[in-house]
Design a protein that fits this description.
alpha/beta; Aminopeptidase; 6-stranded mixed sheet; 4-stranded antiparallel sheet
């Protein structure tokens, strides 16, 4: 399995790590055992019942900082539609390997694991390698957030590679996220006498209109564009003939690197006033990099990215553990690059191209050697 990217990907896909509940421990132990058998120092960090993170290191020499490769073990549920392929079999058809997690992102975990092992066949790479493989990413990077709070062995690094799906094209940023649950309270009464009550839905309705008109007061971020806000869910009331005493809605704000999440949160609270209670569900900063940083240039070189392509750097629309780890490592260069197809993440009949998996192993090794 050491040099078999397809075999390892299939073995990982065969493990059901749908989150919730996750149950990533058996998969973590499988990957950790393979790395330990190939000279890596492996540590398992608990994250709830039957859930483990894996921290693996080899070749750290103290002369140069290591590269960190990071990926997550959990996947999203299968969805309500029936799959035409077995979601846990890793079947191969027409050059594609099918299964939940092939694209997001067990294929990348397999590729970075094999690349890390094979990188030592030519000797010890300068600075060495650290793998930070997490449980609990899919519901808002809770696993990585818990890891940086409770684990003291992350050390330092010169750059981070996040294996989320990009079709092996490096991306150097994504917006941060502020997920909020907002609620209003009222006083219930019979709907024929609404003056005796206090309608919570009206409060929420007024708040939603204010959020539609919300102004971040920002300039365009040269890498990430403009921040956005979206109301995604509304709830309230129990029956047609009562004044509702409770109503709520949710906000998904995607925030660029030229704004602080904390400032946006305070701005939203001020705009909504005392009628609305605000609960923070997810609060993650943007990932942003200087395209001219040496590590970024090295990744571009490893991927064969032309000067023209570098002039319009790629960013991604989704969140990654890079939001947590870039901050934890002091803002070091962080690149998102993985073999999966971005449009196949979370889809029915999810797949990854076999050729992209094989290519990812080579790219990751080039990054290890050239950065």
């Amino acid at each position: 399995m050491k040099n078999d990217i397809i075999g390892l990907t299939r073995a990982l896909v065969a493990q059901d790590t749908i989150n919730p509940p996750g149950n990533e421990a058996s998969l973590a132990l499988m990957v950790g055992k393979l790395l330990a058998e190939n000279g890596f120092k492996v540590e398992y960090v608990p994250f709830g019942p039957d859930r483990l993170h894996v921290i693996a290191e080899r070749g750290l020499d103290g002369k140069q900082l290591p590269i960190v490769f990071t990926g997550h073990f959990d996947t999203v549920p299968l969805g309500n539609q029936k799959w035409t392929m077995d979601p846990f079999a890793g079947e191969i058809k027409d050059g594609k390997i099918y299964g939940r997690g092939t694209t997001d992102m067990k294929g990348a975990v397999a590729a970075m694991t094999i690349a890390a092992i094979e990188a030592f066949e030519k000797g010890v790479p300068s600075g060495g390698i650290r793998l930070v493989l997490t449980a609990g990413e899919e519901l808002g990077c809770q696993g990585a957030m818990d890891l940086v709070k409770t684990y003291m062995g992350l050390g330092q690094a010169r750059g981070i590679i996040v294996g989320e799906p990009t079709g092996n094209i490096p991306a150097i940023g994504h917006k941060g996220a502020l997920y909020l649950n907002l609620e209003a309270s009222g006083i219930t009464a019979h709907s024929s006498m609404p003056q005796l009550g206090d309608n919570a839905i009206y409060k929420v309705a007024r708040a939603i209109v204010r959020m539609e008109q919300f102004d971040f007061g920002q300039e365009e971020d040269p890498l990430l564009g403009y921040s956005t806000i979206n109301v995604g869910k509304v709830s309230g009331g129990l029956n047609i003939n009562s004044v509702p005493d409770r109503a709520g809605f949710t906000i998904d704000a995607r925030i660029t690197s030229n704004l602080r999440n904390s400032d946006v949160l305070e701005q939203i609270k001020k705009e909504l006033g005392n009628d609305i209670e605000v609960e923070v569900l997810v609060n993650l900063p943007a990932v942003a990099n200087d395209p001219d940083a040496a590590f970024i240039r090295g990744v571009y070189d490893a991927c064969g990215i032309s000067d023209e392509e570098r002039s319009a750097p790629k960013t991604m629309p989704y969140l990654t553990d890079g939001s947590v780890l870039q901050k934890a490592y002091g803002g070091i260069p962080t690149v998102i690059i993985g073999p999966g197809e971005p449009e196949m993440a979370h889809k029915i009949d999810e797949y990854c191209y076999v050729s992209k998996l094989e290519e990812a192993v080579d790219i990751y090794k080039k990054i290890i050697y050239n950065t």
